[in-house]
Amino acid sequence: MIELLFQGLTLGALYGLIGAGLALSYGILRVVNLAHGEFITLGAFMAVGLVAAQATLPLPVVLAGAFGGAALLGALMQVAFVERAMSFRDPMVAMLVTFGLAVMIRNGMLETLGANLRGLDVGGLAQARIELAGQSFGLLPLVTLGIAAAAFAVLAGLIFRTQFGREVRAVSDRPDIAAMMGIKVARVHALVAALSAGLAALAGVLLAMRASVSPFSGVAHLLIAFEVVVLGGIGRIRGVLLAGLFLGMVQVIAQRIDANAGMLYVHLTFFLALVFRAVTGRLS
Amino acid sequence: MLRLEGVGAFHGQARALEGVSLTVESGQTHALVGANGAGKSTLLRLLSGLVPDWRGTITLDGRPYDPRHAAARGVALVPEGRLLFDSLTVEENILIGQRGRPGPWTLAALFTLFPILREKRHSRPGDLSGGQQQMVAIARALATNPAVLLCDEIALGLAPKVVDEVYAALSQVRAQGLAVLLVDQDIARACKDAAQVTCLLKGRVSHQGAAAGVTAHSLRAAYFGVAA
Q1: What is the tally of structural domains in chain B?
Q2: CB-nearest partner of A170 from B48, B85, B100
Q3: Is the ipTM of this complex over 0.85?
């Protein structure tokens, strides 16, 4: 039972992290970022590339490298393409721009890395176990859980405890008044896009430590991210974490019942939650 | 001192302001009155950088003034409808203003000006009364330590007692040397505190002069555009 709970928590925290970047993007920039899944995959491939280049790199350096690389690319894309698209009244314009960027990133990975599945070799960490309170836990899931929890704690601190976080929320509420108060709105947008892409990449590295990814994995990741964000509440960090934990728990329990259908039950649960909201008038 | 000469503005193809000239002296209130649609709010929004299509000459303390840099130059707006940041607490709304320009309006000074805000510092704007929200809007603008305070419909929808409190606070603000450009539908109330008054009619200045002795009745012709 504890093992099941632990597996659900680990997967759920990972799902929460997958959704966190998308929640930031939609909640603050008001952009449905269809390239979010590609940033997750890109993060995984950056980590694979870093380890291939220097096998002895410590995990924090790999994580920081993937986060930084994706954040830089996310900020550049925001400045070069998305910010301009956001000036149109129709939100479809920005969404289509992110769709185009997703296609470019996916094909860029395909051209440079090929279509093969790749995973991040974590050496002995994959098999290592430790004893805690009389229970045996896998070290890799513990590390995954710890990193995801730390990422959420830092994100929450950044958004709710700093001047930058206040500016981010002010821009989200009323961008014109925020600009009038002297906040550089485009700069805040670029930093949020960087944070969103960096979080996606972080999730990608953690995913690659558990399973293999291909340049085509982004769509499946995006679907999970959407489910987590819609269930948790757009722009709500705590809600996204709870929704991720809920869906992760559902998947782990479903896999125990039917080993091949865990993901199916995740999607079904999401669908039923939407039906419940529609029936109770809380769909918006 | 804020000086406008021949200022005009457009809303799309429509002319919202034309040839507006006025001066707002430091330590004084300049009342801006006029009927709905006369261009009062447009003028305040223009000065705050929220109206991109404008022409004319504006100077602040003798130097050319670009409204896109309103906060940096020391011009702050208390907008109509308050337009507070709903997801920020009272204290956070005020702290958003405290970036850049140093000056006397620290968080502690603003809590002294509006003591109720100290009690409500962790509340969200949605949980406050209209009067308290107006105080937050004024405090947020003052937190930028402006030289010029623009107040749009500052008493709209407030109880008379609260209006008195708001005007008393503005009086203290003026005593610090700030120039105040004030829009209020209540002409008598606005002119009571002001040194100068400008009346707008269809985007143009229809009356300008000392505010002392001005009443709604005496401004009738300039206000409605009909013979007195």
Answers
A1: 1
A2: B85
A3: yes
